[in-house]
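INTERNAL AUDIT FORM
Audit reference: QA-55
Scope: verify that the stored structure record matches its stored sequence.
Auditor: D.O.
Record contents follow.
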Amino acid sequence: MKKSKISIIQVSRILIQILFFIWLPSLYINTFHGIKDIYSAVVFQNISLTQLIPQLVEVFAIIPLTIIAGRFFCGWMCAYGAFGDFVYKISHKIFKIDFRLNEDTDRVLKYFKYVVLVFLIFVVCTFKINAFSTFSPWDAFGVIVSVGKVPDFSYAAANLTVGFILFILITIASVFVERFFCRYLCPLGAVFVIISKLRIVKVKKERAKCGKCRICTNNCAMGIPLYKYDVVKSGECINCMQCVTSCPRSNVTLTVSEKDVRPLIAGAAAASVMTGLYYVGKLGVSAAGLNTAQVQTQETQSAKGSYKDGTYEGSGTGFRGGTTKVSVVVKNGKITDITTVSNEDTSEFYDRAFTTVSQEIITNQSSNVDGVSGATFSSRGIMEAVQSALSKAV
């Protein structure tokens, strides 16, 4: 009977991971870059609230629920985390690799993700350092592991060289250490560890009822020494439920305000709520984007500019080398409208970039604007296409 329960919980979790891997693979990167953009907006006050809506959607679809329920996102929904799980489990089953880090070493290494977080947010963002734009292993992951597309190793190696190398190294490390990236390098994980300290959903394990097996600790994906605790308050916990399903005494449970709950229902509910918030927010983004474009159009039409009136088309190269074609409308010498004719980009990245980049171009009357964090190549493709169109209007 216990074996059946283990199968149901873990198989269901894997299925949910696969679904998010296919349909929302960029949710992780969008959330982290959303935090960066919000930080930049607060510090430099150069971005309007309307322009921040796409970033706010991802952030507020995930972080509030993390405060309440803990890191369900990491354990059930993160595409990069799921990739690490698949690499580790396949190598563990096929090659019988059983490597374990010393507990003290593991604890110290976990602090490194805070160094990464501070560097990316408070150094790169504050000083606007662009030299590290190709260093992201999750950008390389997005290029290589895109469902429905052939892995483009050559594009990743040529355009994201350092990020590609880091991605390969992290993948190799994931063969030996479960959730290597999540434990030691993930900056978003560092944010989640901090905010999930307040969560009410926790793992409970009465040590008085434990034997000496330490099976729960040995099965913890994040290397938490569970044998030391009656209630797991560590922000490192990703609610993967492997401790719950592996305990031979059924002594490990998931609790909400000290009351036991069913792990499968809790995980599925958390994933459903986050997804619902995400898509509801996306509808708001679309409406806001249209309204903002209309306001900006009215503002720019009143001033005389330097371009010839007319409608012009141009093309540029976006994410994964795809061609982006746009149509640019010029009235009274000003850019008043930008629409997409066609694009061969990845929709998650392109949609995120287009709203912000097109609005910035209209506001600044220039194709030379800042790209959108997490959609750098899509942004460049849009800017290049607009510049190509405007070259015909001079």
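Auditor finding: record pair retrieved intact. DSSP finds 17 helices and seven strands in the chain.
Action required: none
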